[in-house]
Amino acid sequence: NRDNRTLERIVKQIPFKNVGEIHKNWTATGVSASRTTTHRRIQDMGFSCRISCVKPFLNNRQRQKCLAWTKDKKNWTAAEWSKIMISDESKFCISFGNQGPRVWRKRGEAQNPRFLRSSVKFPQSVMVWGAMSSAGVGPLCFLRSKVNVAVYQEVLEHFMLPAADQLYGDADFVFQQDLAPAHSAKATSTWFKDHGIPILNWPANSPDLNPIENLSEVPAMWMFQGVPSRKKIRITIVSV
Question: Could you name the domain of life of the organism this protein comes from (predicted)?
Answer without folding.
Answer: Eukaryota
